[in-house]
Write a structure and sequence with these properties.
The protein has nine helices and ten strands. The chain is α+β, with helices and mostly antiparallel strands.
Length: 264
Amino acid sequence: MDTCRRRRVVALVLLCLVVAVTAATSPGVADDKSGTLRFGVGPLQPTPSETKKAYEPFFAYLAKQLNREFDLVATTDWAGISVALANQQVDLAWMGPWGYILANDDSGVRAIATAKYDGKPIYHAIVVCKPGLVKGWPDGGRGKRVSFADVGSTSGWLIPTAWFKKQNVDPKQYRNAMIEGGRIDKTATEVVWTSDPLPNDAIAVPKSFDPALADRIQKILVGISDEQAKTILPNHYTGFVAATHDNYRMIEEAGILVGRIKKK
C-alpha cells in the first residue's frame, strides 16, 4: 500500500472513531436539559399579559415533561407569532388556524397538534344579527350592514369572506364567548349562518424543528387527560389531537380563494 493511500485509510478510521465517540456521548435533543425552549402564543386574550397568564400553566407543564427551561412570549397580533416562527425566534407556538396557514405559506411552519375545545377539535364561524332582522340567508341580508373582525381572524374574517366570495356576494352593499363575558345578552342576537366545521387552534413548530422532539411533544400533548386539562389549560380547552398540515387544508383553500396566499 503506498504512503498516500495509507494516510487516507488512517484518516478515515480516525474520523469514524470521532463520529462514533460523539454519537455515544452526546445526549439526544429531546434529553438535552441545557437548552431553553422558546414558546409563543398569539393574541387569544384581550391583552398579552392576560394571554400569558392564561396559557403559561400549559407551557410550564410541557417544559417540565421535556426536562427543559422555557421562555414564553405573547404577541399582540397573529402576524407577530408567524414572523417569530419564520425567523426561528420561537421553537413552538399556539396559534389560530389562519395564522398557522399564513406562517406555513411564509416559511413552511408545520402543525403537530390541534387543540380540543369542549371536547372537540373543530368549531364553526357564524353570522349573527338582531333577532328577526334577517328573514332567510343570504337574501335576507342584502342591503344590511355587515361587520367583520380583523383580517387575522379565521372565523371572524377569513371564512365568512371566502363564503361571500363563493356566493358572488359583496359583503360591503362571536357569540358564546361574548355571552359568557357579559358583552352581549344571549337574546340580543340570533345565528343566521353557520360554516362547515373548522379545525381549532394549531400547535406548530418551524420547518427545521427536530422531528424526534416534535414527535415527543405531540405524544405529550395527545396524552393530556380531561382532568389534567382542567388544571393546565384555559377554560373550555380539554386537550389535543395529533394533526398535520392536511387538517388545515380547508383554511388554506379559503386563503387562496380570498387572494391572501397563492395556490401551490
